[in-house]
Amino acid sequence: MTSLKIVGVPEHFNLPWHLCLENGEFEKENIDLQWTDVPEGTGKMCQMLRDGSTDIAVILTEGIIKDIVNGNPSKIIQIYVESPLIWGIHVAAQSKYQTLTDLENSKVAISRLGSGSQLMAYVNAKNQGWNSNQLQFEIVNTIQGAVTALTNGTADYFMWERFMTQPLVDQGIFRRIADCPTPWPCFVIAVREDVLATQPEAIATLLKIINAKTQEFKAIPNIEQRLATTYHQKTEDIKEWLSLTEWSQEKMDNAMVDRIQKQLLELHIIDKTIPVMQLV
Fold it and tell me: Angle at which helices 61-69 and 116-128 pack, to 10 degrees?
C-alpha cells in the first residue's frame, strides 16, 4: 500500500475527492490517501509542500505558480478546475463602503501572505486602475478571522470564493459589493518533485481515479442536495455554482503556463518567469 498525503480547501470543489475516499476507490488500487482540509488556503498549502508535510495539494493556480517561481520544489501535474474562480468582494454589512471605487486605499483582509486572497487583491487593483503598491493587508488566516476583522474594522474588505461566503451574506454579516473572476483556470493539482520521482505509478493511478469522478460528478444523482448539505448552501446557489464550474482532466499546456506567468509578471505578483518545464 502506497501512502500519500494530500491537502485542499474545505470547499465544494473538492467533494469529488471525498466521494472517492468514502467509496474506497484509492484503497482498491493500493493507495492509502490521507486527506487534510486546510481552511487557511493556498499560502499554508505552499508551505506544507515546501516542508514535506504534504505530498500533493489541490491548490489555486496563481498561488502555486508564484511559489514554484520562488523555489517551491513541486510541479503542477494537471488542471483540476478549468473554469475561473469567482471571488466575491465583501465588506461588513454595516460598512460605510458602498461601491468598489470606495475601497481604493482601504485595508484588505487576507488569509496569509501569498494566498489567493492577497494575489486576487492585486488582480482587482489592476482591473480598477489602482496603484497596487498602495495596497494594505491585514492577515486573518480564515474566513472566521475575516468576519472578526471586518466587523471590528481592523480590515475593510475581504475577497473569497463567492459561493462559500454566500451564507455570511444571507445572514447579514457580509455585504457583497462586486465579483472578480480569475483570468485563468482556478485549481490545479501540484505534487512535490521527490514524490513524482519515487511514486510515478501511484500518482498516475490517483489521477485516473479522480478524473473519472470529476467527469461524471455533475451527473451523480442528488449531488446538489449533497453539496448543499455538506457546505451549508442553498440548493439554488449550488445549482448556479454547478452551472458555472467545469472540472478538467487535462494537463496544463505550455502556452497557458506562459500566458499565466506573463499576467502574474504584469501584476508584479512574480518578479521573473521561469521555463515551463520547471513548473509542469
Answer: 100
Q: What is the pLDDT of residue 123?
A: 94
pLDDT digits (tens, 9 = 90+) for 53-75: 999 999 999 999 999 999 999 99
Tell me the residue range of the domain where 132 lies: 86-181
CATH code for position 261: 3.40.190.10
- Our measurement of the distance from residue 108's CA atom to the centroid of its chain's CA atoms, rounded to an integer in Å, reads 18
Is 76 in the same domain as 12? Answer: yes
Q: Of 151, 181, 211, which marks where a domain is finished? A: 181
Spacing of C-alpha 148 from chain mean position: 22
How many angstroms separate the CA atoms of 79 and 109, rounded?
28
Judge residue 221's burial from the number of C-beta atoms within 10 Å of its C-beta, 0-12 exposed, 13-18 middle, 19 or more buried.
exposed
DSSP characters for 218-238?
A: GGSTTHHHHHHHHTT--HHHH
- Residue 197 and residue 71 in one domain: yes
230-278 residue pLDDT tens: 999 999 999 999 999 999 999 999 999 999 999 999 888 899 999 999 9
> What is the rounded distance in angstroms from the CA atom of residue 38 to the CA atom of residue 27?
23
Domains: count for the chain? 2
